[in-house]
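Complex 214.
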Amino acid sequence: MPQPETRTDTATTGAPAAIDEPTRRALIEALAQAMFAHADELTALDQAIGDGDHGLNMKRGFEAALADVDGLAAKPLPDGLKAMGMTLVMKVGGASGPLYGTLFMTLGKALPVEPDRANLVAAFGAAIDAVKARGKSDFGQKTMLDVLGPVHEALAEGSDPKAAADNAAEATIPMLATRGRASFLGERSIGHMDPGARSSALMVAAIADVLEQG
Ligand SMILES: [Mg+2]
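Predicted structure with magnesium ion bound:
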C-alpha cells in the first residue's frame, strides 16, 4: 500500500494517524473546554427532564481530568483512557459518571497503543456494549446511547462522526424516555433533548476537531 493513499484514506475517515502525547493532551483539554463552555446548557437540558445536575457534574469531572492532564497525557493511550474513566467515575457522579467512566475504561481496554481505524470501530462497539450493560439500557430509550450508536455507524462506514452525533442528539428531542431519570416523566419527556445525548455529541465534536487537525 503506497503511503499517499494510506494518508488520504486516513484523512477522509478521520482515523488518527498516531495519538501521541501532545495529541492526548489536546484531546483532554478539548473535552474539558467543551464541557466548561456548555455546562449551563447541559444543566438547562437536565432541569427540563432530569434533576439539573448534568452540567455541574460533567464540569467537575473534567476539572479533575484537566488538573491531572500531565499525568493522563503521559500514559500510553490505553492506560490514559482507563485512568480518565476512573476519574470520571469518581468525580462526575450521578448516573452519567459510571456510564462515561465505563465508556472510557472499555475504550482503554479494547484499544491498542497505536490504533488504526478498524481498532477504533471495534473498540467503540465494545464500549457501547459495556455502557448498555452498565446502564441496563439499549438504543431508542432517549439516552447517550442514541448518540453513541449512530457515531459508531459513522465511524464504521467512514462518514462524518460529528454530523452523525449532532443529528442523533437532535433526534432525541421527540423521543419518549424509557430509561434514566427522564423516564419518570413519561410523555412529558417528549420535546426535550436528552442531556446525556447532548454531552456525548459535544465530546464527539471535541475529539473529532482535535484528530482532524492532527
Ligand atoms: Mg441529572
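The chain has one domain: 19-213.
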